[in-house]
Amino acid sequence: MRKFLINISVFCLVLMGFYSYFVHKLSQGYVDWYYNKFTQEAGGLIMGLSRADQGIAPYILEKELEEFDMGQPIVNFATNQSSFGKVYLNAIQKKLKGTSDNGLFILAISPGSFTAPEGMGVENILNFDKKTVMGKINNFTSAPNYDYITNCYAQPLYNVFYPNTWQYHMPHLSGWNEVKAQTESDTITKSDISHWKSLTLRKYRQKIKIERISQYRIDSFVDIIQYLKTKGKVFVIRLPADSDIIAMEDDLWGEFDKKFDSISKKHQVLYLNYSKLPNEYKTYDGSHLISKSAKKFSYKLSRDISKILKGEVYK
């Protein structure tokens, strides 16, 4: 029995050693789409869902707003799982530097930011959010971040030798996930864009059938605004997207812009609505800005914020 226990102990130690090696090895290179968002303290944040994740480049905001000496780094802390709620607020609080008091905070919103499965109460929404990337970890600022890898990495660890990346995807250390139209070996075609847009529309139609607007998420959004106002300047924005996607969102929630303009005014922050701009910003799937347009929009957003901070009239 003693020999058996020794053998089992040795086996477990070897297994743990291999596991630790693979986790560390993985942390030295590409991990996944969201890993870079959890490897540094932030002086400012971009928050919201995947449209913000791919549509706003922090380095452009930092460069264009440098004269205002706002907290850095600005981290793109948006994911496709970060709907507004207590879990997201907790992650934001842990992500920010304790000394942050002049940060720039971009809250990107869309109807999808405020939905939950039909009939799901507050307690169940909270438990649902705890199962997302924002709810699975406690460490939001370490590099390497073993907490993230052990709790959120969804692939076999041997993928460390075969990184599972999308050829058009370029992850940035700032958390921005850039999607390029062209690589050395391939190009996103008009046919690709049309097909991916059709898939996006189908996905949205399916979500509309099973999800409803949640007052809990709206209330949590207000809580996040109130917290961030103690840390710096807060701007609520709605990003541009394909006109068919925006039209579908407006059909779902016709008073959306009016509602959140009112909420923003009540809490003394600005709502900048870019959803009704002409089709000067291009997407690759109807919803998410492709690299060139994401950079163009980031410059536009920076210029508008600069005018506001200087006290100029904003239109």
State the gist of this model.
The chain is an alpha/beta fold and 315 residues long. It has helices at residues 2-27, 50-55, 58-64, 86-95, 122-130, 133-136, 146-152, 190-210, 215-229, 243-252, 256-266, 291-309; strands at 44-47, 74-76, 103-108, 115-117, 169-171, 177-179, 211-213, 232-238, 270-273. The protein has a single domain, classed as 3-Layer(aba) Sandwich (Rossmann fold).
Plain-language structure description:
- By secondary structure, the chain is an alpha/beta fold.
- It has a single domain, classed as SGNH hydrolase (Rossmann fold), CATH 3.40.50.
- The protein is built from 12 helices and 9 strands.
- β5 and β6 (177-179) form a beta hairpin.
- α8 runs parallel beside α10.
- The longest helix is centred in the first third of the chain and has 26 residues, at 2-27.
- It starts with a helix and ends in a 6-residue tail after the last helix.
- The relative contact order is 0.17.
- The mean pLDDT is 88.
Query: What count of structural domains?
Result: 1
CATH names the topology as Rossmann fold
CATH superfamily annotation? SGNH hydrolase
How many beta-strand runs?
Answer: 9
Q: What are the defining features of this structure?
A:
9 strands, five-stranded parallel sheet, Rossmann fold, two-stranded antiparallel sheet, alpha/beta, 315 residues
